[in-house]
What does this fold into?
Amino acid sequence: MDTRASGVGAGERRLNGIQTSGREYRNLSEPQHEMEQVDDVAIAMRDGVTLLADVYRPTTDDRYPALLSFAAYPRQIQNLRLPLGMVEAGASDFFVPRGYVHVTSWLEGVPLDRSGFILTDTDLPETQPRDSFGLLGRQPLVFETSIPGLFAAGDVRHGSMKRIAAAVAEGSSAIRSVHQAIGK
It folds into this structure.
């Protein structure tokens, strides 16, 4: 088994080695495209929320299938060129040279702390408009962001322990709030 770190150039990332438990992937397509990146593409959702996305695409103007990824961390880490390929939203520099558009997104419009972590429930500022919650006749539920029905748990949340076991526990606990929000 080859345990060297994969390359960091476009198309050089390997899917075998220490980042994938050594599994061999045969018959993969060869990289054929250069990659370009377009940052901060605004995508308006029908509920008024705007998502900002970064789009990684081949440099030619052809049509390509798209992969849409949401990560637990801000989308800006996508371009750090981590040598082991351990990027939350998938390896843009693997997929794009092989003919895919890779769109990564992070939610805009929710309050963050000074370090960029999402504020939830009791940590939401009092100045935060709560019209939506007022219309629902309730306060934000545990792990709920300023957007009713949108929950944050684990490493992205302000005040979390930033440990795997704690993130799993928070995610499990957030399910209770999700069920409460949808009336189950």
